[in-house]
């Protein structure tokens, strides 16, 4: 019997595998700070929009405990879209079609879009969490993780997670 589980995958990253350098601030030239390609399968029935939050879940707060560091926030991904191509961040309008409806939010560097990590030490886990929602979210112009998570409460039909190590 085939698995009907809502899944998030990347052709470049195995679950629990390494995040390639080109998706980080440690890449080189044009192969630096690219958003990784992502694909999803078995989106729950009734999904009207998808949202994505990517965080370094091992980020240390110099003044206290580990506090996740937001790398990327993406809202209002139409359910007709089944993937985000490599280097998609910042190019919604160029890609066109339904991709133009997507809203990228601000990361913890206070910049819109994907910002790959540059770490003092490696071995951090990066969690990609995709939410299937029963409605689009209305977040205004400045989308943040906190605004998104508040807005989706009570609207989540399913979650799919991919973890990568860097």
Write the layout of secondary structure elements.
Blueprint lengths: L6 E3 L7 E2 L19 E4 L7 E8 L12 E9 L5 E2 L7 H4 L7 E2 L20 E9 L11 H8 L3 E10 L1
Parallel strand pairs: 2-9
Antiparallel strand pairs: 1-3, 3-6, 4-5, 4-8, 5-7, 8-9
Could you please describe the fold and organization of this structure?
Pfam families: PBP. Residues 1-35 are annotated as: Disordered. The chain has 166 residues and is mostly beta strands. It has a single domain (7-165), classed as PEBP-like (Phosphatidylethanolamine-binding Protein). It has helices spanning 92-95, 145-152; strands at 7-9, 17-18, 38-41, 49-56, 69-77, 83-84, 103-104, 125-133, 156-165.
CATH homology superfamily: PEBP-like
Helix share, percent: under 10%
Give the helix tally.
2
Order of helices and strands: EEEEEEHEEHE
Overall pLDDT metric: 91
| Integer count of domains | 1
Find the structural class using helix and strand composition. mainly beta
- Taken as a percent bin, the fraction of beta residues is 25-35%
Provide the low-confidence segments as ranges.
none
Strand order of the largest sheet: 2-9-8-4-5-7
How many β-strands, per DSSP? 9
Termini, distance in Å? 34 Å
What is the annotated CATH architecture?
Alpha-Beta Complex
Question: Per the principal axes of the C-alpha atoms, what is the gross shape?
Answer: globular
Radius of gyration: 15 Å
CATH class: Alpha Beta
CATH topology: Phosphatidylethanolamine-binding Protein
Biggest beta-sheet profile: 6 strands, mixed
